[in-house]
Design goal:
The protein has 531 residues and is of the alpha/beta class. The protein has 16 helices and 22 strands. The structure holds nicotinamide-adenine-dinucleotide. Nicotinamide-adenine-dinucleotide (NAD) is lined by residues 149-153, 176, 178, 209-210, 213-214, 217, 228-230, 233, 236-237, 251-253, 285, 386, 388.
Length: 531
């Protein structure tokens, strides 16, 4: 691809270039898609200073939530009008198939940005509270400068999961996308600039994670960091964030157990198992990578799954007929291949390995044969570590208790699934699984209206759902004191107008600091009057 476009970074409302650009290459052809300015720790500092200045200026946080929601809506509408262009860009940089990019990556990103805009309209930014002894207000205020560090697998969507709630809550943001896939986020920043977002409120700095990402995680003026990526880097982000006790949200790895019960609809579950494990060539944290089959169904299920696997078309992700594209990079390909070798070495059976595309135009891409292992034990590396590639490991179980024990035998806890025609039975198993999301007879159905996040080492906090803005706000209780008899009695703890007053305040149960139940006066939320 000649004449590849160049993308500067977006800092303080300006497009900022750097001396040494980075190349963004197509994972399917190896061709240059675009060049992009490569930021340094200095660029991260400048972006944080711009975000801090915008926060202090207050033109974004002091807008009414409705006004902020209108701007976020417009920010979502512009990319929606250029959907084809964004979808193509996401395919070119991430290697995802065009069908998936349209429905999931870009379609969800736009829908979720609208959802966060709507949350701003309904969120309880301010609630009056009243009890017998206290009247006051509980406010939720923006935390200040938020940093979002996002990965390459769902570049636009996972960036929106961070900047959406942060902006809806009135914060300012510095985003750091993965250097391999920064283009769709930079396009969203272009929309933001065009639709009235004040300067400095959204900044995008591209650059190495160990330099730009690490600087944002440790920066003393950043108050909150939201990260999606590997558990190892997540730990380092958490450590760096401890310097000024930042709020932290982490969306990390997974090793999703996918339990098929003996009464499952086998046709549905076979398709579901492949969908769970191989969507986006297995490069999704919520993938169902451990398939748990009952002894009674094992052989028939594996045979039918291999027959169905042979129909999966691997090839050019821009071709609408393609089911699976490449993996992101040569590094990722080598890492997955090493896991496949470890599976063979540790005694698992390589039951299926697909053929790779042989089109001449794709020979420089990063192709990996979708793979199914059987005879996998829970202690094998392929059953314990996140492979992040199209590799399904089949484990057997004899009864439900054993299935639940195997499912929970992992340091991860992001997603899980159960396939059964008996919803009550599936529900009782779902209740016992240690995972932030459990799908029954389904997979990958992330819904912005409900919380998404991990148990155990899969993360910290939740990114979606009605409480998403909690992670981006500080709560403040304002007590509106009235100089009355009760106040005077309480002050008597120090200022004794009468020796008995303080004691009396407690013993009568009327103390303003006593244990009475507060009553929430305001039932409805009206954000329109709020600045
Ligand atoms: P990663 O964790 O290295 O990178 C994710 C993001 O963090 C990128 O933007 C990266 O630039 C940034 N980063 C890297 N080092 C950093 C540091 N020290 N401080 C702050 N930010 C830093 O993930 P990866 O190398 O792209 O992939 C490695 C593995 O991570 C994958 O094989 C997979 O297991 C996992 N992963 C998980 C997800 C997920 O959605 N949970 C996404 C991508 C990768």
């Amino acid at each position: 691809m000649t004449n590849a476009p160049h993308y500067p970074m977006f800092i303080d409302g300006e497009w900022v270039d750097s001396e040494a650009p980075l190349g963004v290459y197509s994972p399917s052809t190896g061709e240059l898609v675009a060049t992009v300015a490569c930021g340094t720790a200095e660029h991260a500092n400048t972006a944080v200073a711009a975000a801090q200045a915008a926060h202090h200026r207050g033109d974004w946080q002091s807008m009414s939530p409705d006004q902020r929601a209108d701007i976020l809506d417009t920010m979502a509408t512009r990319p929606a009008a250029r959907l084809d262009e964004l979808v193509r860009l996401e395919v070119l940089e991430a290697g995802v198939t065009i069908r998936q990019a349209e429905a999931f990556h870009v379609g969800y990103a736009i829908g979720h940005l609208r959802y966060f805009a709507n949350l701003a309209r309904t969120y309880p930014f301010e609630s009056a509270v009243q009890s017998r002894a206290t009247s006051g207000v509980v406010r939720r205020e923006p935390v200040g400068v938020c940093a979002g560090i996002s990965p390459w697998n769902f570049p636009l969507l996972l960036a929106v999961w961070k900047l959406g709630p942060a902006l809806a809550a009135g914060n300012t943001v510095v985003m750091k996308p993965d250097s391999q896939t920064p283009l769709t986020l930079l396009e969203l920043a272009r929309s933001a600039a065009e639709c009235g977002l004040p300067r400095g409120v959204l900044n995008v700095v591209v650059g190495p994670g160990s330099i730009v990402g690490a600087r944002l995680a440790e920066h003393p003026d950043v108050r909150k960091v939201a990260f999606t990526g590997s558990t190892e880097v997540g730990r380092s982000v958490m450590r760096a964030a401890s310097g000024n006790v930042k709020r932290v949200t982490l969306e990390l790895g997974g090793k999703g157990p996918n339990i098929v019960l003996d009464d499952a609809n086998v046709d549905l579950a076979v398709d579901g198992a492949l969908f769970a494990g191989w969507l986006h060539a297995g490069q999704a944290c919520e993938s169902g990578t451990r398939l748990l089959l009952p002894d009674s169904l094992h052989d028939e299920f594996v045979d039918r799954m291999i027959a169905r696997a042979q129909t999966v078309r691997i090839g050019d992700p821009l071709d609408p007929a393609t089911d699976m594209g490449p993996v992101i990079s040569a590094k990722q390909q080598a890492s997955i291949e090493a896991y496949v070798e470890s599976g063979v070495r540790e005694g698992a059976t390589l039951a299926y390995e697909a053929r790779l595309p042989d089109e001449p135009g794709l020979q420089k891409g990063h192709w990996l044969a979708p793979t199914i292992f059987t005879d996998v034990r829970s202690d094998m590396t392929i059953a314990r570590e996140e492979i992040f590639g199209p590799v399904i490991s089949v484990l057997r179980y004899s009864d439900e208790d054993e299935a639940v024990a195997i499912a929970n035998d992992t340091e991860y806890g992001l997603s899980a699934g159960v396939w059964s025609t008996d919803v009550d039975r599936a529900r009782s198993i779902a209740d016992r699984l240690e995972a932030g999301t459990v799908w029954v007879n389904d997979w990958h159905m992330v819904n912005c209206r409900y919380p998404f996040g991990g148990y155990k080492q899969s993360g910290l906090g939740r990114e979606l759902g009605p409480d998403a803005l909690d992670e981006y706000t500080e709560q403040k209780f304002i007590h509106l004191g009235v100089w009355d008899k009760r106040t005077r009695r309480a002050h008597a703890m120090l200022l004794s107008t009468s020796p008995d007053d303080a004691h009396q305040a407690f013993s009568t149960g009327l103390s303003p600091i006593g244990p009475e139940e507060p009553q929430q006066l305001e039932q409805g939320i009206d954000n329109s009057a709020l600045p």
